[in-house]
UniProtKB/TrEMBL annotation:
Pfam family for this entry, one: Methyltransf_11
PANTHER family: 2-METHOXY-6-POLYPRENYL-1,4-BENZOQUINOL METHYLASE, MITOCHONDRIAL, METHYLTRANSFERASE
SUPFAM superfamilies from the UniProt entry: S-adenosyl-L-methionine-dependent methyltransferases
InterPro entries, alphabetized: Methyltransf_11 (IPR013216), SAM-dependent_MTases_sf (IPR029063)
Name the UniProt record assigns to this protein: Class I SAM-dependent methyltransferase
UniProt superkingdom: Archaea
Species of origin: Halosimplex pelagicum
Length: 224
């Protein structure tokens, strides 16, 4: 699929499916718990999350950071943002520049996660949100025992379950205010979105808390 076709696909799918569900979970927490005047979204991709911020918060200054210049150009189609092309391990911002830093599906891809979360800590003046797949989910554990790979995790440099992620973030200066484990990307979403949402929010987390597909870590700086 070409870059243009990717863009058109994202435009058509905005507001639907697992990606939109992830953004909704993060947005709900931000609206309830944070007061923000600016936000940095690391690895913004096509800018869908910043579009959600743009729609829900008046006057918030939005920064998009990505390594790919084509993605940054596309971001401007979705939201009024300041686009910055840079590597996430060396963020080109002054310390404590942002009320909130979001890294949704990024930490598992970086070579040096310790350096990455410390850079996020440096440029944040208060809060951060990290989203990553949960390697504690049953199919991942079974695959590991059988010495098999799971396609979803191929190419990921690191992986965390609930306890590993909390310990890792706290050892790098963060207070984990809340961590949610949600069932986000499973086939029911594609055919029965309302049923999928009900199961994700009400049923599966209640009975299988530690087996969710993704971890949402909502953090504040220990020294803030």
């Amino acid at each position: 699929m070409s870059h243009r076709e990717n863009v058109e696909h994202i435009v058509e799918q905005r507001g639907y499916g697992p990606r939109a569900e992830r953004h909704s979970i993060v947005l709900d927490y931000i609206k309830t718990n944070y007061r923000i005047e600016n936000v940095l979204d690391i690895g913004s991709g096509y800018g869908e999350f910043l579009e959600v911020i743009d729609q829900e918060f008046d006057g918030v200054v939005k920064y998009s950071l990505d390594r790919e210049s084509e993605l940054l150009r596309t971001t401007k189609r979705f939201a009024d943002v300041h686009s910055v092309q840079a590597d996430a391990k060396r963020l080109p911002f002054k310390s404590e520049s942002f009320d909130l830093v979001t890294a949704l599906g990024i930490i598992e891809h970086v070579e040096n996660p310790t350096q990455f979360v410390r850079e996020v800590h440096r440029v944040s003046s208060g809060q951060a949100v990290f989203l990553t797949p949960n390697i504690g989910r049953p199919n991942r554990l079974i695959a590991a025992m059988l010495d098999k790979s799971v396609n979803e995790f191929e190419g990921h440099k690191q992986g965390w379950d609930y306890h590993l992620l909390v310990k890792f973030l706290e050892s790098n200066g963060w207070i984990v205010d809340d961590i949610e484990i949600r069932y986000v990307d499973f086939p029911l979403y594609r055919r029965f979105p309302r049923l999928g949402r009900f199961l994700s929010y009400k049923v599966l987390p209640r009975f299988f808390k530690n087996a969710g597909t993704e971890l949402f870590a909502f953090c504040s700086k220990a020294d803030a």
